[in-house]
Amino acid sequence: MRKLFVIGIGAGDPEQVTVQAVRALRGVDVFFVIGKGEAKRELVDVRGAILAAHVDHPYRVVEVADPPREREVSGADYRGVVEDWHERRAGLLAEAFDRVDGVGAILVWGDPSLYDSTLRMVERVRAGGRSFELEVIPGITSAQALAARHRIVLHDIGEPVHITTGRRLREEGLGSGCSTLVMLDGECSFTTVSDPDVHIWWAAYLGLADETLIEGPLHEVRDRIVRQRTELRERKGWIMDIYLMRHI
């Protein structure tokens, strides 16, 4: 493989793929997809829909099975578990890359710079002795899509935005003096926030047909979000959600 594109494809809507990304897609011979099992097959199918919408030449799709990782870890153990998972992922990608001639691409949900491990794994592959040109194409993040769908600005006047995970929100609590954007939260960690002056803007499946939005004072909509999230996950088998919280 002489070149690899890592392409941000947005939050799921084919119309949110940038012109730069489309131009890159049309120069690719092989697309690598990290599969996450049948329960999340829709994530692969959405990538297929994006290719069908924007690629105008014959291409191949190579699916790489995502290795399992331990989920119930915290603190110092968490980083070690994730590092091991990245190493095993990188090994599988290296094997797939070795079978390709020409130009390859990995399609990244959202943008490669924000809570995504693709670039770390690709650098591990290159450090292992594979030589290829690497180009990164940015995409619209779920944070941007959340703000657009709720018609809000992510921060208040002159304030910072704190971007974190559900795990860290549970461990550290909600900070003061900034808006907090929470990603990768499988535990409804907003339920641990008791401040009555907090407002939440929540969304699931941004850009997809099942997109769902809820916003309001946290103490009023907390239970509604939990119920809606549980129903959606049970029906679809997976969920991707994100939310912003701010003191009002």
Per-chain topology:
Blueprint: E1 3-8, H1 19-25, E2 30-35, H2 41-54, E3 60-65, H3 75-97, E4 103-108, H4 118-127, E5 133-137, H5 142-150, E6 161-165, H6 166-172, E7 179-183, E8 198-204, E9 212-217, H7 218-236, E10 241-247
Parallel strand pairs: 1-4, 1-5, 2-3, 2-4, 6-7
Antiparallel strand pairs: 7-10, 8-9, 8-10
Helix pairs in contact: 3-4
What's the short story on this structure?
It is built from seven helices and ten strands. By secondary structure, the chain is α/β, with parallel strands linked by helices.
List the main descriptive attributes of the protein structure presented here.
five-stranded parallel sheet; 24% strand; single chain; 248 residues; five-stranded mixed sheet; alpha/beta; Cobalt-precorrin-4 Transmethylase, domain 1; 7 helices; Methyltransferase, Cobalt-precorrin-4 Transmethylase, Domain 2; 36% helix
